[in-house]
Automatic annotation (TrEMBL):
<feature type="domain" description="Methyltransferase">
    <location>
        <begin position="50"/>
        <end position="172"/>
    </location>
</feature>
<keyword id="KW-0489">Methyltransferase</keyword>
<dbReference type="InterPro" id="IPR025714">
    <property type="entry name" value="Methyltranfer_dom"/>
</dbReference>
<feature type="region of interest" description="Disordered">
    <location>
        <begin position="429"/>
        <end position="450"/>
    </location>
</feature>
<dbReference type="GO" id="GO:0008168">
    <property type="term" value="F:methyltransferase activity"/>
</dbReference>
<dbReference type="Pfam" id="PF13847">
    <property type="entry name" value="Methyltransf_31"/>
</dbReference>
<keyword id="KW-0808">Transferase</keyword>
<dbReference type="GO" id="GO:0005737">
    <property type="term" value="C:cytoplasm"/>
</dbReference>
<dbReference type="Pfam" id="PF01564">
    <property type="entry name" value="Spermine_synth"/>
</dbReference>
<feature type="compositionally biased region" description="Basic residues">
    <location>
        <begin position="434"/>
        <end position="444"/>
    </location>
</feature>
<protein>
    <recommendedName>
        <fullName>eEF1A lysine and N-terminal methyltransferase</fullName>
    </recommendedName>
</protein>
<comment type="similarity">
    <text>Belongs to the methyltransferase superfamily.</text>
</comment>
<dbReference type="GO" id="GO:0032259">
    <property type="term" value="P:methylation"/>
</dbReference>
<keyword id="KW-0511">Multifunctional enzyme</keyword>
<dbReference type="InterPro" id="IPR029063">
    <property type="entry name" value="SAM-dependent_MTases_sf"/>
</dbReference>
<dbReference type="InterPro" id="IPR051419">
    <property type="entry name" value="Lys/N-term_MeTrsfase_sf"/>
</dbReference>
Length: 685
């Protein structure tokens, strides 16, 4: 039986609807949900004494149900199909005496001005506004003008719609320009199988008398989970907010029907501020054999650990899901700007929403476990928030790591999933004879760090590899003695601090373009300047170019650890200008003949990476590479001198000798930092 039109234009044809309702018979045809879903919204805007007009009523039961429950009984229904009007009159003639059905075109209504308190439209605007052709838009304008004419001031036009972007935009712009208040409600679904994947919305347009020179009307959106509307500033923002909810509905439909081949991610935002509160990743493990108890679990990532490989990368999350033994694992990252009330509070807040992302085949009333590391949500304390014209917004925060250790981190908020700098904190050491503070004593100010920086510990694996590259200096039996080292890129200062402290004869020059980073490193990461450590606030490109012209061949080692601010390039470290051949020639000029140039390369673009390597080979005959496990970082060691290539055995021997020299009595040394291990996997390029 053919019930759908051959073309969208037929939606506006009386002949089509006559044929449609004759073929369908007495069975009600409900556009966009039934009365139980719409009732909570309608109750807010329809009063028992209101005079209600339903345009394009069809054979929907909506008017009958509103009448029967006593929501409102003075209801006039109009439609351009003679067949359906006769059907509906027969159905309600004796049971609903105050309700009427009239054959009428809503574009040319016979009612007097200001005759109704409410105009109700369930899918009629969507059926009319099938495209954005000039003739179609003119019909929409005519429909809106007629609705405006028959509504009283203070009356409401309630439009039930799927909120396609062009439909919503047209309605919002028309009525807001007329000075009406426009509010969009998302209709809560019943949980049953829906006719449409997309959610249903109700536009509530409240008529106000337009004043000369008045601004556009108020725009608001009211999501299904809350009653209080949120104000938006423009029709574009309102359309975008609706589109976000439509995308979420499509995502839920997608993940509920089949396993996800790729990991799906989304943000859940705070109702008040609109800022992200939770970031969710849906991770399916096809290798896990399903049983009743292992379909689905929620994993709460401890605060501050979302950047770790296991939680912050696709491969890490895949490994986490497989080891957890669940067919679908939903990982949840917590955002630093948001307060949380412990695991129980998070579980209560998320329990309803996460079930919308449950896998297909989840047994009814299945208990879904919430998991975490150690059973808690971790600790994160934001110590400092700042902003810089060069680096943008940034934060310094202390987080609890795996175990009892705490770490201080610098995060650039434009790339919040990457730790820019990190240092381990030393636990406060009580003075001899000092008693342990009672728990009820006044806590330290949040601005005070809980302990000093552990300068002996390099948190970043790529920093350890960069330090290990100093083994390439000197002759076959020589170890680095007096060193002149140039570090471009300060960050928190961990790398130059380690070189300064453990290479006691090293003179370290640091170049940092952003003066804010020098302040952060000094105040929050224990960095300090002195006779053997000087910071130059300058662009690294300019500083190297000036040295190449004035003072060549002065550095034993040059280290580049510079991030790129341009996130559109497939290389986040260093900026592309730092690895162009003319600039690399200048780096070679200021390097001593047997010196080493160490570069932290973070490049996801294979073609771009190959061009970088080609430029390095053209300038430096000797090129070694050390890949960092679980990270994109690759440390490149470049030499131009006559030392010749060193094999793994020689590199290992030099590394062990250097480590022995650095491990001095009374000086702390990180037992996990083995220079030989750092060089064991070095590749000759």
């Amino acid at each position: 039986m053919e019930l759908l039109p051959r073309s969208p234009a037929e939606f506006g044809s009386a002949r089509y609807w006559d044929r449609f309702f004759r073929q369908r018979g007495q069975r009600p045809f409900e556009w966009y949900g039934a009365f139980p879903e719409l009732c909570p919204v309608l109750h807010k805007y329809v009063r028992p004494r209101d005079k209600v007009l339903v345009v394009g009523c069809g054979n929907s039961e909506l008017s009958e149900q509103m009448y029967d429950v006593g929501m409102c009984q003075d209801i006039v229904n109009i439609d351009l199909s003679d067949a359906v009007i006769r059907q509906m009159r027969e159905r309600s003639a004796s049971a609903r005496p105050r309700m009427s059905y009239l054959l009428m075109d809503m574009l040319h209504m016979d009612f007097p001005d200001a005759h109704f308190h409410v105009v109700l439209d369930k899918g009629t605007l969507d059926a009319l506004l099938t495209d954005e052709e000039e003739a179609t838009l003119a019909k929409a304008d005519q429909m809106f003008a007629e609705i405006s004419r028959v509504l009283q001031v203070g009356g409401r036009y309630l439009c039930v719609s799927l909120a396609q972007a062009h439909v919503l935009k047209k309605a919002v712009e028309y009525f807001s320009q007329e000075g009406w208040v426009v509010r969009v409600h998302q209709v809560a679904s019943s949980g049953d199988q829906q006719q449409f994947v997309l959610p249903v919305f109700v536009y509530v347009m409240t008529k106000f008398r337009k004043m000369p020179g008045s601004a556009a009307g108020i725009l608001e959106i009211c999501p299904e989970e809350q009653d209080r509307p949120m104000r938006v500033e423009s029709s574009e923002q309102l359309v975008a907010a609706v589109k976000d909810r439509q995308h979420y509905a499509l995502l839920c439909s997608q993940v509920s029907k089949a396993p996800c081949r790729e990991q799906v991610s989304l943000d859940l935002c705070d109702k008040e501020s609109g800022k992200p509160r939770y970031t969710l990743h849906v991770v399916d493990s096809p290798s896990v054999k399903p049983s009743r108890d292992n379909h689905f679990a929620i994993f709460i990532i401890p605060q501050g650990r979302e950047t770790e490989w296991l939680f912050g990368t696709e491969e890490g999350r895949r490994q986490l899901a497989a080891s957890a033994g669940f067919g679908r694992l939903l990982t949840v990252a917590l955002h630093r700007e948001q307060p949380y009330e412990g695991m129980a509070g998070i579980q209560a807040e998320l329990s309803g929403k996460v079930m919308e992302l449950a896998p297909p085949g989840l047994p009814a009333r299945q208990q879904v476990p919430f998991l975490s590391v150690g059973g808690d949500i971790g600790v994160r304390a934001v110590r400092h928030c700042g902003s810089s014209p060069l680096s943008g917004d940034f934060v310094v925060e202390d987080v609890k790591g795996d175990g009892t250790c705490y770490f201080r981190r610098l995060i650039f908020l434009q790339n919040r999933n990457v730790v820019q700098s990190e240092a381990r904190l030393l636990a406060p050491t009580p003075l001899p004879g000092q008693k342990k503070k009672r728990k009820d004593k006044k806590k330290p100010s949040p601005a005070e760090p809980p302990g000093a920086i552990d300068k002996s510990y390099l948190c970043c694996e790529h920093h350890k590899a960069m330090v290990a590259g100093l083994c390439l200096l000197g002759g076959p039996d020589a170890l680095p003695g007096e060193l002149a080292v140039l570090v471009v890129g300060l960050g928190g200062g961990s790398l130059p601090l380690f070189v300064h402290d453990y290479f006691s004869q090293a003179r370290v020059a640091v170049v940092e373009i952003d003066p804010s980073m020098l302040e952060v490193a000094t105040h929050w990461f224990g960095f300090c300047q002195g006779e053997r450590m000087q910071v130059h606030v300058s662009d690294g490109l300019d500083y190297v170019a000036k040295l190449a012209a004035e003072a060549p061949a002065q550095y034993d080692a040059i280290m580049f650890d510079v991030d790129s601010k341009d996130l559109t390039v497939g290389m986040s470290c260093p900026p592309p200008a730092f690895v162009e051949k003319p600039f690399l020639q200048k780096v070679k000029t200021i390097l001593k003949p047997e010196g080493v140039f160490v570069l932290n390369l973070v490049c996801r673009d294979a073609r771009l990476k190959e061009s970088v390597l080609a430029a390095l080979r053209a300038v430096f005959p000797l090129l070694y590479a050390r890949r960092i496990h679980g990270e994109v970082n690759e440390i490149l060691f470049c030499q131009a001198g006559p030392a010749g290539r060193r094999g793994p055995a020689e590199l290992g021997a030099r590394a062990r000798a250097l480590e022995g020299a650095l491990r001095r009595p009374g000086r702390p040394w990180d037992s996990s930092f083995a220079l030989a291990d750092m060089l064991q996997a070095v590749l000759v390029l």
